[in-house]
Amino acid sequence: MRCLVIEDEVETSRYICNGLREAGYAPSAAFTGDDGLEQALGGRWELIIVDRMLPGAINGLAVIRRLRELGHTTPLIVVSAMTATEERVRGLQGGADDYLSKPFAMTELLARIEALWRRSGIGRHALHLQVADLTLDVGTMRVTRGEKAITLQLREFRLLEFLMRHEGQVVTRTMLLEGVWDYQFDPQTNVIDVQISRLRTKIDKDFARPLIHTVRGIGYRLAALPPADAAPAAAPLPGA
Hints:
Layout: E1 2-6, H1 10-22, E2 26-30, H2 33-42, E3 47-51, H3 60-69, E4 76-80, H4 85-93, E5 98-101, H5 106-120, H6 123-127, E6 128-131, E7 134-137, E8 142-145, E9 148-150, H7 154-165, E10 171-172, H8 173-179, H9 191-203, E11 212-215, E12 219-222, E13 230-231
Parallel strand pairs: 1-2, 1-3, 3-4, 4-5
Antiparallel strand pairs: 6-7, 7-8, 8-9, 10-12, 11-12, 11-13
């Protein structure tokens, strides 16, 4: 799940991004209102967290108002040291879905995010994924296939979540680099191939029906049945 954090305090931004990353989200950071608005308009985000006060010509509320005026319905949470009731009301009336006062505990922010999904009616879709007998719970980071519990490293979990959210679709290397590794460029390494191989070992190795399929020359597809253009799965890498 891709999240945009618009926060000018570097330490606070790092704190939020690290907490989101540890919880299985894929955060990106912006440090001004102008940059935050540009990133918000130029990307696909499942959540935006924005500071009330930002340097530059555009503050947090202006970012939110602009996004809402343009028809963006992305869930938005304001974080701010401005705790007066009238400021909270202004934030919510301006288009924010929630308002969290600084300082705050990361556990509270995560709880508010989950509550936001529930209120919006997309909580189950956002937090619980299933393809065939493979299930993934974003909130607990629990993965099972059939009756077997599968332990994944954080990057493997994010990779599997991305594939499951694009069930049946061809996922390209560029999509994976941007959505899982937060890269805006190709590092020219085999990092994707290594992680896919390791994921296959854990997800498909002991089961008769593989779910992760290679689409030759393009990328990968996670689906219950192999597509006609799927290539045979490569053997696991040594030590994977």
